[in-house]
## 1
Amino acid sequence: MSRWSLWLLATLLLPAIGIFTLVLVIPGLWLIRMSLNQALAGGSYRTALTLENYARFITDPFYLQITLNSVTLSLWVTFIALILSYPIALFLFRLKSRWKSLLLVVTISPLLVSAVVRTYGWIVILGDQGLLNSMLLGLGIINRPLRLINNEIGVIIGLVQILMPYMALALIAGFGRLNPDLEKAAMSLGARPWVAFLRVTLPLSLPGVALGCLLTFALCISSFVTPKLLGGGRVFLVATEIYDQALQLLNWPFAASMSILLLMAFGLALVVYSHFTRRFEWE
Amino acid sequence: MGGRVLSGAIILGLYLFLLAPILIVFIVSFSIDPFLIFPPSAWGFKWYGEILRNPEFTRAFRLSFSIALVVTTIGLMVGTLAAFVLGRFQFRGRDGILGFFTAPLLIPSIVLGLSLLLVFLPLGLVSTFRGLVLGHLLVVLPYVIRILVVAFQTMSKQYEEAALSLGAPPWVVFWRVTLPLITPSLVASAALAFILSFDEVVISLFLVGSRVKTLPVAIYEYVEFRTDPQIAALSVLLILLSILIVLIIERTVGLFRAIR
């Protein structure tokens, strides 16, 4: 392959580098620059070098509140997604039949169904005249519809289902490195099944759990389509606020600075994660 | 024995939860009521006819379909060239370039969308076909490049070497030997690219305008205010498209490997 000269290889990379420069590098740098401009009333801005947008986010209690909302909601979603995905991943890991590959596809294929469609599905199920409320009313269990959408409950349910395949994917990948015979070996040495699980399988699956939680948390805290539609404008999160500031209030400097802060939180999460996984490998 | 039944029931329940929003739209799409009601008063195909007569949805569908076709074509061409270099050659900075190309996967799409809006606005690319294609390429290229780099890395090199030693020029070898060998990965990345572009909503929300509106954005705006069964019928069509894509990817490189 020595006939491929260096300049030819560089030429082959050029189209991709050109596109990424236009859609990633320049927009990224411009976003940082925009976050330092001064926002004026009425959706315009003045070129400046100021940190007042960042200061506004940090000092205004409203933004502290929505940050707390975002973090709390994302922690709940991550926790519930973990609890619901772990049995599926464990089941698929232990399954030895021709159904395994089919069920694996069924588990992760919801990812390729539009998030808008899945969110709409949850509105149909959870709405006031939705499936769940109609069933409960029909059975006489409740006498007025439960409020399951246009609040945090709906957003959490929707996000858990939308992000579960990612969590399952990470858990299954984590289980992939595990030898199913280890558990059997522990049991043949006299360990009860749940002891074998707690002492052998669970600890070995923790790296997958860490990756799944990081992925789910990151995707959750930055999602806004589901919170917008299932929250009905009553659930205020950082991501929905970025969208509103950018497209409704046209306050681009402030939307940009919130985006930069979100990116910094992401970077921090990645650093913490890689720190912990290195410790896993050390032990 | 009781334990097995219990764990089986739990697994069944979890799968039911995972598939609930997808299954429910199939049921609702066959209702003929003007609004959501359970159980529907009668069944029929009324809403499927209704979406075909809705000019906003048919126009949005055509736009999304053509954007996805263009994005898939450009993404595959650009991605194949880049992945070939990154998958087959060792040079200084290779890992850095690969990291650069897959970086968008680590950045929240709302941040990507906002930054694209801020740059595309002065360039006159907002609310244009070209702007949406460029924005979708940012989402699609990392996946295409990642799948194809693995394909180039793991394919057997002996056929290329044989062709080269017989005197074929490198570009002929690439076209006649290398590309046919990685066809399954090319098909899988094309299918994934198509559905990622067709379903893309976050970046599109920042880049669409009233005249240029993609289907997921049209659905998003509709669902914000109304939730009649028309959207269910439309959703069923989108789900069927997703199932087709899933089958293609599973048959070629495997869904698990493609998405990871």
## 2
Amino acid sequence: MTRTPDGHPDGPAHDALREQLGAHALGQLGDDERAAVDAHLAGCASCRAELAEIAPLAGPLARVDPDAAPSPSVPPGDFAAVLGRLREEDAPVTPLPTHRRRRVPLLGAAAAAAVIGLAGVGVGVAASTAGEPPVEPAAVQALDPGIRADAGTIDHTWGVEVVLTASGFAEGQRYEVTVLDRAGRPVPAGAFRGTGAAEMVCRLNSSVLREQAGGFVVTDADGDEVLRSRFA
Amino acid sequence: MSDAAGTARAPVNLRRIEDLEAAYRDHAGELERFALRQLRDPGAAADVVQEVFVRAWRHAERYDAAVASLRVWLFTIAKNVVVDHVRHHRSRPGTPTAPGDLPPASERDFSDDLVTSWFVEEALTRLGDDQRSAIVETYVRGRPYAEVAAEQGVPVGTLRSRVFYGLKNLRHIMDDMGVPL
């Protein structure tokens, strides 16, 4: 065995001890082997440093599942739902660039409202301001007589945005908004808190594309439907 | 990769919807796979991802690229959301997870292992076959060196050497990924 001037193993002997550091870090050495490596470590700073580098891997490695199926790749998710949640926090959110959509004549919405023909029906005519994508009005039917509401939709590339202008939702109570696709399947579009008599404007985003969206419903904390809207 | 490019260009500001959406594009898929692995519930996993980005936006000022890569930071949030989810559903079945706050960075508990093990698993896939199988067979599966060495047709010393260099490489890969150990 060759040795360094300070008496430690050098060359192949050192390499042999050094290459045991992996098994040492993983607790795989027998008592004698371990004692030999420990004796070497006591006098070899570079091996101590190498051991310190790999030793923290032992814990996490022990929890790796060797038989776990490779995780399936997940299709790109629903960023619109995130945006909806952010709007729910009533935060200033920078609008995303969206393509313009031809404004639908208000008559269409009025006709839709007339077709529903129920008490409490309102017609949402949310005005579109300059620089914003156009808001298409949507028919709204409140099931609670205290609620007055108008609604409109904005056609974004990532899904339909619902603009709900309303008063009469119980102050502080949480309401969930769910967009229904043309087949009636529910897709969460976020939530808001009622503001009582004060008028509120909330913007809720869903991942359902405008042409596939049939309307939306608002449900209260008990899950009861309090408002329904049908898109033209 | 995207982390390095992202931090090299301009500071990431997750309050900006463009930055948040870019982070979503880069990491939502992997985060969802992570949540799915932990919860085994696709609906819950999707909820976790949504909550991660809401919290990331809410606590954007806490993100410091000098301290952690964006990916590691998002995974740390995801871990917290997953843990919240599990705790919540243990105590109140059938109710949605209440959005919680990020715990202080010093709070290290068992759940940190979730994230580290996830990254270790990924780092393992980047190792060469010899080194990976040496570590997986002898340590993760706990098989005797002699048996694995015979199966792979190499001396025990060679297998040990593969474990050692494999661990060194693993550590470098983890460091490159910005995962603290």
